[in-house]
Design goal:
Chains A, B: One of its GO terms (molecular function) is isomerase activity. The structure is a homodimer. By secondary structure, chain A is α/β, with parallel strands linked by helices. Chain A has a single domain, classed as TIM Barrel, CATH 3.20.20.150. Helices cover 45% and strands 15% of the residues of chain A. Chain A contains twelve helices and eight strands. In chain A, helix 5 links the parallel strand 3 and strand 4. Chains A and B meet through loops of A and loops of B.
């Protein structure tokens, strides 16, 4: 793929510029010739769905995904039902913003029983699929790094996510491959291959040693140890040729000027993705 | 199993009382009716192997393991050969101290290529097996949590460790199940079962949210989210009935009086293991 073709796939995952609101992120993306954006729900909420939709439509930016649905496990049936309702709103937002991909961060367990929590995730997805389908939205299960099992998601390997996705049709439920979450996996390339036809997104950042912060410590591509380029080629061989989201959760980047961040993003993307 | 039988299996992994030298750890264990100890090599080095051996023999304590061999991957053949030599010394130390178990922390990759590093681990173990066998020592591969892939070990799941162990006879190479490193694994109970006859040690601590420190943030049993008791029963069903090492790497514990730490260790062990 030419450098130009690659750069046309870059999508700004909005959490990378957490210091910006949606308007700033949209305008920043245009200034840096970025064609795609992934929109976070807390940013939509700040200005409302209608204004968000108008902003994006006027900009000509394409939306690669909405982040995020999920968070299924909860101790009571009532709370789990509330989570489903919230996911339905997320599906509506994705549909309104013109993307067919809702990223699912599936949620931690309310107690020590990981098996029960994983069952609730499965049940939650089962319940959502018909609603998502009606709205033209696919559910994209993102396995999170095992270090997040206790506070963010009980879905921790690509194997687990793909197996869960396979309970449904390929145009209903798929997976996100985020290099930061899966690069360590001894079965990684086998599992990427197994996810063929199910990959709904590819996210990039890097893993730098030492890790400053488990949550806000993701690094710019090229600053860490992840074989990003090899993984990009593997997901392409598995049939994914869509937008590539740069999703870097990093306090040091949030403390910088957003335009400086986007300069680093585009330059690192060119070299290391 | 009666509480008394369970307590007879408690082993003090010496890193839990990093503030103590070997003499203090041995005497502390005796004061708290602990029958087993796992000895770390940097503690042996402080006083020498001969003095360490005498201390332990005089105390009547049994040695559950020596921590640690491993650290196989290195960029040059010369360096990898040096690592093998160091592992041979570790095997001799284990043998001298009267344990048949050397714990392997297999080491990080010197560069981005995890596949190559994992191959070096495999080759390193292949080279060590005859020497270890001659000394009556088994090599115990300890999978480390995936968050340590870049700085401590490229062996990150029980599946991977067991598969690697199966290249050799069951009385030559096995695995360590450490709850902190493997509790997140969606295939955990399946993999414990698959490791039947290969489990050479069971280590306990806990995973507390939020994690204060990736390396020195392990918690006392019962203070976190790990189903320790369920895992203990699973490794027993898979044939392991040996010592259970309490291995808590935690700066806050190291800052306390060692006897206070051992009081917490024995009390938490009784309740939560």
């Amino acid at each position: 793929m030419s450098e130009q073709e690659l750069m046309k796939r870059l999508s700004l995952n909005q959490i990378t510029t957490e210091q910006w609101n949606l308007k700033e992120a949209v305008e920043g993306s245009l200034r840096h010739d970025i064609e795609w954006i992934s929109v976070w729900r807390h940013k939509i909420e700040e200005i409302g769905l209608k204004a968000s939709k108008r902003l994006i439509q006027d900009s000509g930016l394409k939306v690669s995904s909405v982040c995020r649905g999920g968070m299924f496990p909860a101790p009571t049936a009532k709370e789990r039902a509330e989570r489903i309702d919230d996911n339905k709103r997320a599906i509506e937002e994705a549909s309104e913003l013109g993307t067919d991909t809702l990223v699912l961060v599936c949620g931690p367990s309310p107690d020590r029983d990981l098996c029960a929590a994983r069952k609730w995730v499965e049940e939650g997805i089962d319940q959502l699929v018909p609603f998502a389908k009606d709205h033209g939205v696919k559910l994209a299960i993102e396995p999170l790094h095992p270090m997040f099992v206790a506070d963010r998601s009980v879905i921790n390997t690509l194997e687990q996510a793909t197996t869960m996705a396979q309970n449904h049709a390929a145009d209903e439920v798929g997976v996100i491959v985020d290099v930061y979450h899966v690069f360590w996996d001894p079965n990684l390339y086998h599992e990427i291959k197994r996810a063929e036809g199910r990959i709904l997104g590819f996210h990039v950042s890097d893993w730098k040693v030492p890790m400053a912060d488990m949550f806000k410590g993701r690094a710019m591509m090229g600053d860490g140890v992840i074989e990003i380029n090899r993984m990009r080629k593997a997901v392409e061989e598995a049939g994914y040729h869509g937008p590539i989201e740069v999703e870097i959760i990093n306090q040091a980047l949030w403390d910088q000027n957003g335009d400086d961040v986007l300069k680093q993003v585009t330059s690192s993307f060119k070299k290391h993705v």
